């Protein structure tokens, strides 16, 4: 199945859409799927402007075996900005809400955070370790289903692990990501696909300062992990089918919650998007 099949929505009414779910091995519908489908629904009600910020809350678990209904509220349509609110519904109850803001292209000041960029992945090099290889080696003693659960969200993307830092002053996870398929169309679809993959890695990053091996399914199975809220700010155009560096950095862990910041950079070091996520990281046993 192509990722485009996952993101294609059926328009039922002017502001109502239906999307299909996919079981990728996670305990509930993958949050990135719901986020991306909701953004697709909102974008379908906006003309001549693209999304620049998204704020979402995950309310209830999604059912793999039922479609998801997306209701779009056209909150505001101004001269430069448009605002939309989306509610995702299954079995008569909301499972997700999202607010998104869209803007026309404008000229203005330009500054972006700079970091030292690692070298791009070289397919012939052993310097980088694919996400799949990390999971398989770290979880050699885990069951097959556990490995799939840790791996399948990246099946649409080439992914290369750059570094995993467990230092408290620089707890982070860095990954090169690139969609395997070519993307046709304007930057709208690139943003939707980035939203899909932005739900990957942030909660794992919140475990790094505590010394957990975040790609070992047995280690991860010690926690109940679930996204609670998620935000994205899109800064500049980019291509999701070119390599992007995704740096996920732990900000805080407390009260069984973790907060992490994600930064997306192009290969030349340009910051193109920022994400923030707080989620449940509840230990299943006393620590």
Overall form: globular
**What does the largest sheet look like?**
13 strands, antiparallel
Q: Low-confidence stretches at least 5 residues in length (pLDDT < 50)?
A: 126-130, 138-152
Per the CATH scheme, the topology name of the largest domain is Thiol Ester Dehydrase, Chain A
Helix count equals 7
**Can you tell me the CATH superfamily of the largest domain?**
Hotdog Thioesterase
> Whole-number average pLDDT?
85
Strand order of the largest sheet: 1-2-4-5-6-3-10-13-12-11-9-8-7
Give the topology string: H per helix, E per strand. HEEHEEEEEHHEEHHHEEEE
What would your notes on this structure say?
This protein is α+β, with helices and mostly antiparallel strands. It folds into 2 domains: 3-103, Hotdog Thioesterase (Thiol Ester Dehydrase, Chain A, Roll); 129-283, Thiol Ester Dehydrase, Chain A (Roll), CATH 3.10.129.10. It is 19% helix and 39% strand. The protein has 7 helices and 13 strands. The chain has helices spanning 3-7, 31-43, 131-138, 144-151, 187-198, 202-205, 217-220, and strands spanning 10-13, 16-19, 50-58, 68-77, 81-90, 93-103, 129-130, 157-165, 172-179, 223-234, 244-254, 257-266, 271-283. A 13-stranded antiparallel beta sheet has the order 1-2-4-5-6-3-10-13-12-11-9-8-7. α2 packs antiparallel against α5. It is globular, with a radius of gyration of 18 Å.
